[in-house]
Design a protein that fits this description.
By secondary structure, the protein is an alpha/beta fold. It has 14 helices and 16 strands. Strands 7-6-8-9-10-15-16 form a seven-stranded mixed beta sheet, sandwiched between helices. It has a five-stranded parallel beta sheet with strand order 2-1-3-4-5, sandwiched between helices. Helix 3 packs across helix 13 and helix 8 packs across helix 9. The N and C termini lie far apart (60 Å). 52% of the residues are buried.
Length: 388
């Protein structure tokens, strides 16, 4: 039967639960797959740090996890091999990760076949939880949620009529493009330009000139951090100045991007968590993360943290049974730093959490939450005021 217990804060949950597994011997063993090296490592580090902070909080509360770390370097075949190792040789109870959509998408297939619970903290490619998998759970929102948040904000602040879409040709970037096109057309916006590029391309100027000639009101982008910075540098060089630059999270949400102030100022990014929003525990998490790691957290940090806290909860109640972990994930509900979490089937998704989206804007080299109005900590600057 579905759980009838009331959701409680994850830290309180960690402190209050009995410790049957620990009492019998070794703590529950879980696996983590992340981009520790490779091009996505700057974002992967935030996820890793969030997991580490969760493990420290759990230990302080009397709950420990054995964690087997695997580095996929952002490569899907490596992620698949890492999962197979964790599931067979290491015999973990469940796996958290991977970070990237490409790695998570292929790993999800392996997890479902192996009947090992997989909790995906961050990967947002829509199709990951639309394939009927019964052992795969996702905390993060999808690219459709990211696109909708950006376009809804733009329509509320101005009167855009046209959109250009520019994305890297990864699983994540391609999903951003499909989602943005679909939602833009639903909202009666005309897509006047669309192009993808290979990750790590050295020069976007020719494409950006074509974007400028199309004269879009909005430019929606899906990129990891290195390409996000380069795209914006070259957008400035070619004089592209729409009503708004809209980044679908990922690289546009990092402090590394925000600190490139000559090109990042006033750029928007859709995120599922922010430390400046008055959600229970968010400000405290941001403060402790900054103190522990010397940099502000991102939603990648909060996703790693909350996923680990949820896995710890179910792992300690599952008695070493993977099927029980799966059942507890399907039945449970949790309250934590990203709000209420519940994995459910809806809108064609399976075991997908619903997450309120936020939009941040880079102001003075930092991200500030500007949308929706009821949680905003700053007023959005609209339209884009031009290049300085």
């Amino acid at each position: 039967m579905p759980s009838r217990r009331r959701p409680v804060p994850l830290l309180a949950l960690a402190a209050a639960l009995a410790l049957p597994a620990a009492a019998r011997g070794a703590p529950p063993k879980i696996g983590v797959i992340n981009s520790i090296t490779g091009p996505e490592a700057p974002i992967g580090e935030h996820m890793t740090n969030g997991i580490k902070l969760a493990l420290e909080d759990l230990k302080a509360a009397g709950k420990e996890l054995q964690v087997v770390w695997e580095d996929d370097a952002g490569k899907p075949p490596v992620a698949m091999s890492a999962f197979e190792k964790l599931a067979t040789r290491d015999e973990v109870l469940a796996v958290v990760g991977p970070y990237s959509s490409a790695a998570a998408n292929v790993t999800a297939r392996v997890a479902d076949r192996a009947r090992v619970p997989l909790l995906i903290p961050l990967a947002s490619k829509e199709e990951i939880t639309r394939q009927g998998y019964q052992w795969v759970f996702r905390l993060s929102p999808t690219t459709a949620d990211r696109a909708a948040a950006l376009i809804d904000m733009a329509l509320a602040l101005g009167e855009p009529r046209t959109v250009a879409i520019l994305n890297e040709s990864t699983d994540f970037g391609s999903s951003v493009a499909r989602s943005a096109r679909a939602y833009a057309e639903d909202m009666k916006l005309k897509v006047v330009f669309e192009a993808s590029y290979s990750k790590g391309s050295p020069d976007f100027r020719a494409t950006l000139v074509q974007v400028r000639l199309a004269r879009p009101d909005l430019v929606i982008m899906g990129s990891y951090v290195v390409d996000a910075i380069l795209v914006m540098r070259q957008a400035r060089e070619v004089g592209l100045a729409p009503q708004a630059f809209l980044g679908a999270g990922a690289g546009f949400a990092l402090s590394q991007f925000a600190q490139e102030r000559e090109v990042s100022e006033n750029v928007y990014s859709s995120v599922e968590w922010a430390g400046d929003v008055a959600w229970p525990g968010a400000a405290d998490f941001a403060r402790r993360y900054q103190q522990r790691f010397g940099r502000p957290p991102t939603y990648h940090s909060s996703g790693g943290y909350q996923s680990t806290m949820i896995i710890a909860d179910v792992a300690y109640r599952a008695g070493g049974d993977r099927s029980r972990v799966r059942a507890l994930l399907r039945e449970g509900a949790w309250e934590g730093i990203t709000g209420r979490v519940r994995f459910a089937n809806w809108g064609g998704y399976q075991n997908q959490n619903k997450q309120q989206m936020l939009v941040q804007q880079v102001r003075g080299g930092k991200h500030e939450t500007v949308w929706p109005p009821e949680v905003a900590t700053a007023r959005p600057i609209w339209p884009f005021p031009g290049w300085k």
